[in-house]
Amino acid sequence: MENDPIKSGNVNKDFLANMIPHHQGAVVASEQILKITKDVDIIKIARDIIKEQNREIAKMQKLLKGME
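The chain above was modelled as a monomer; its predicted structure follows.
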């Protein structure tokens, strides 16, 4: 099942592997609201979320790569 947690036996690796899709979901939701909202506060929050979550995703991917 797509939403089943990843379990490799390495808790650090599993944490990162499961947090990446969580952060990607926040990016997708933010991109969706930007297509329809005109609220300047929501626009700012959504843009900030996209920027920060993408930064964190890249950091987690880099850490995961180092665990291989």
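The CA atoms of residues 32 and 46 lie 9 Å apart.
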